[in-house]
Every structure is written in C-alpha cells, then in structure tokens.
Specification:
It comes from Acinetobacter baumannii (strain ACICU). This is Tetratricopeptide repeat protein. By secondary structure, the chain is mainly alpha-helical. Helices cover about 70% and strands about 0% of the residues. It contains 25 helices and two strands. Strands 1-2 form a two-stranded antiparallel ribbon. The longest helix is centred in the middle third of the chain and has 31 residues.
Length: about 450
C-alpha cells in the first residue's frame, strides 16, 4: 500500500480518537493513540494530539520523554507547540520550556516573543528577559498581550515599565479582571498602595476584588514592617532610646494584631501575612508571641521559609528552650547562602544551654572554616577589611573560653584582640565582661572607659 494511504488511514484513526476524547471517553482515546504511536512513533500529528491530551489532563509532559525525543522541530504541528511549552511552564520547568521555545523558534510570532520573555523572567534570567522585551513593540498589542508583557517586566524588577505597559491595557479594557489584577500588582510594586486601593474600590465588588484588597493590605503591612525595622536601625545608630526607636514598629505590630484577627487559614494571603508578622515580632524581641503564633500555623518547621525558621529559633533560645532552638537552627545550615554568624552563634548558644560543650567546640572549629576572613570592596584602590562575621567569630571564641571556665585564657584572648582593634566596641565590652567575671571591677571600669574616647559613627 502506498505511503500516502498509510498516512490517510492513520489520520482517520487519529481523528476517531480525538472525537472520543471530546465525547468524554478519555481512557479509550488515550488507549487508541497509544496503540497508534507504538506502530507510528514518529508521526508528528499523533505525537501532537497525544501530548495535547496529556497536557489537557494536567499531566507533566517532562515525564513523557519517550515521546518528546521523537518530535521533529520543523514538522511538529504549529497548534501543539505553544501548549507543549505552556505545560512545561505550568509545572515550573522554566528552563525546559525555554529550550523548547528556542527549538521551535517561537519568537517569530508576537505571542511567541511574549511567552519567551515571560519564561526568561520566571526563570530569573534577567538579561535574556530584557533582550526579548526590547524586541516587543507594545503598539497594537491586545490588552491580554500587554498584561503578559507587564507581568514579565514586574518579575525582573522593572515596575515602572510594568506600570506603563499595563496602563495601556487598562485604557483598552477597564472591566477586565486580568488587567485589573496586574494593574494592582504593579501599583503595589512601586509602593502606590493608596492608588491601588482607590482602583479596587472603584471596581465592581467581586470575590477577586475582595481578595485583592486583602493582598494590598498584607503587602502594605509587609512594607511597613521593613520600613519600621530600617527606621529602628537608623535611630538606634543615632543613639536614641529603644522606646523611641521602636515606636514605629510597635504601631505596625499593633496593626498586625488587628489584621491577624481578620485572617482565616483559607485566605490566600494567610501565610504571607503570618511570615512577616512573625519576623516583626522576633525583631521586637517578643519571643513568646512568635512561638504562640508559629504553633497556630500548624505547618512543619522545615517547610517554613528560612527567615521565619530563624525567627522561631531565636525565640526558642530566648525562651530557654534550647533543644527546640537547636533543631530550628540546624534546619538553616543546609539553606543555600543563608547561614551566617547569627545562625552559628544561635546554634552555639543552644548547645551551651544544654551543656553540649563538645558539640559547641566542634561547631566553632567548623565555623572557622566556613566564614570568610576578609571583605573586599568593588571600588578600585580600597583595601580589604576584616569580614564582620570574622569579628563576631573572634568574640565567640573568647566567650567559649569563658564558658568553659578558662577565664584567664578568655581575658588574654580579648586583651590581645583589643590591642589589635582598639576601637572595636564589641571586643571592649566582652573584655570588660570577662574582667567582671574574674572579679576585677576596677579593671573592667577602666576597660569600658575606652569607649568614651571612640568617636560616634556619622
């Protein structure tokens, strides 16, 4: 039988399978296509329809490699290319989606360029995302296309470009829910909370707008937490008392208490709010509240974000629950680029509180290997300086000698370090502390008097 007759036969059987799928007979359709693919594994229409059905059934297509390898990039039907890439995207296989986008050369169409821009943005490949976005002329784009472009700009932290793009979409379709959503997110990204609120309040009240008002409230709360903490650090450096330095954070946490009473576990913003609330409570030193609220989350500790686990670990240590603190700190050790001297110090003290002196000593030896010695400047001609973590480590070394009851060695350790860094306040305070422990109050007073000669930091 001639080849074209075989092809015609296969097309008839393939179309029968598709009709069965549309009629709701999914298993029968899949079985029919399976059988055909066993006989004709390189038939591009068969592959396209089979993978399209698998994608429609919410199956991860990366698990179908035996079919993917038979795809011919040139002959594979156009109608199945974007859905295939979209499936990879839906399952967050962004790099795989990008690879297939380039294999299919999807950027030859406007929708393809937009999708590729979004994929690069979602993969946090900022350079390539910018490159693709620069090739898109927003004039003549539909509202839906403009929303996708704005979304890509927002993901790569170009909120002004995102806002300018979505405003064009809003001019086209003021009633579109997807346009409204992106518009609000872009306003949030530039901190324009009031305008976002006005926009939502002027829109028809729907489940979406109610949810977005809550998203807006939680986003603003998160920003207020960060601003209040930054303000505390500034005022503290200026020498203001804690009562004044913490005033703004106290107001924000009071607002957080009110939001907390309105929140339900089913709310989409529930976890995001609680994570930032716990972070703020920990910074304020309200360790009991951190533990109580984190327990209410009813989520295994290991599944929480690293900064939340850190807050919980610090709180357990403050509440004299070193065993739980130890467990929490240890979950942070495997986080990429997260552990720093604050984590190591917390874990060290959790060992000391449990009298696990051997583990504490082993940790110190390991930390000496892990933390950098120097901090280098990007500026030309600027000398390297001692890394802040190294300074903290040196202080912890001395305190370890003191905790091990080697007070004489601890005193010598800090005396030597103060000679090397006579303006280091932390070392001076630690030396004075050890001198007091050695019952040398006059020497401690003399040591502390060094602080009077240190110029305040501008």
């Amino acid at each position: 039988m001639p080849i074209h007759l075989y092809a015609a036969q296969v097309d008839v059987l393939r179309e029968q399978a598709i009709q069965n799928y549309r009629a709701g007979q999914t298993q029968q359709a899949v079985s029919q296509l399976d059988q055909l693919l066993n006989k004709y594994p390189h038939d591009q229409k068969l592959l396209a329809d089979y993978l399209f059905i698998m994608s429609s059934e919410k199956r991860d297509l990366t698990n179908f490699s035996r079919f993917l390898v038979n795809i011919n990039y040139v002959d594979f039907p156009e109608y199945a290319k974007l859905p295939l890439i979209q499936n990879f995207r839906d399952f967050k296989h962004f790099k795989t989606a990008i690879d297939w986008s380039n294999k299919f050369n999807i950027q030859k169409s406007v929708d393809g360029r937009i999708l590729l821009s979004v994929l690069y943005a979602e993969a946090q490949d900022v350079a390539n995302a910018k490159d693709q976005l620069s090739k898109i002329d927003i004039k003549g784009l539909t509202a839906d296309q403009l929303v996708r472009v704005a979304y890509a700009y927002r993901l790569i932290n170009l909120p002004v470009d995102a806002l300018a793009t979505v405003e064009h979409a809003y001019q086209q379709q003021t009633k579109s829910s997807s346009v409204l959503q992106e518009y609000v997110y872009d306003l949030i990204a530039i901190g324009s909370y009031k305008k976002a609120q006005q926009l939502l309040q002027a829109s028809e009240k729907t489940e979406q707008t109610v949810q977005m008002l809550q998203t807006l409230q939680v986003s603003e709360f998160s920003q207020h937490i960060n601003n209040a903490i930054a303000r505390y650090k500034y005022l503290n450096r200026e020498g203001l008392a804690d009562a004044e330095s913490f005033a703004e954070l106290d107001k924000v946490l009071e607002q957080g208490q009110k939001i907390h009473q309105q929140m339900n576990p089913s709310d989409p913003n529930y976890l995001r709010f609680y994570y930032d609330y716990l972070y703020g409570l920990d910074f304020r030193g309200r360790s009991k509240a951190v533990i109580e609220n984190s327990t209410q989350l009813n989520i295994p500790l290991e599944k929480l974000p690293a900064y939340v686990r850190h807050a919980i670990a610090d709180s357990y240590l403050a509440e004299q629950k070193p065993k739980k603190a130890e467990f929490a700190y240890k979950t942070l050790l495997t986080e990429k680029n997260y552990p720093d001297m604050t984590v190591y110090t917390g874990l060290y003290y959790s060992y000391i509180e449990q009298e696990k002196y051997k583990e504490a000593e082993q940790l110190l030896a390991e930390v000496d290997r892990l933390i950098p010695t120097y901090k280098y400047s990007q500026a030309k001609g600027v000398d390297k300086i001692s890394h802040p973590d190294r300074d903290d480590y040196i202080a912890l070394q001395g305190m370890h000698l003191a905790y091990a009851n080697h007070l004489d060695q601890a005193e010598k350790h800090f005396q030597k370090k103060v000679e090397q860094a006579p303006a280091n306040e932390s070392l001076i305070n630690n030396l004075a502390r050890v001198e007091r422990w050695r019952e040398k109050p006059l020497e401690a007073k003399k040591t502390l008097s060094r602080l009077n000669g240190i110029d305040p930091i501008a």
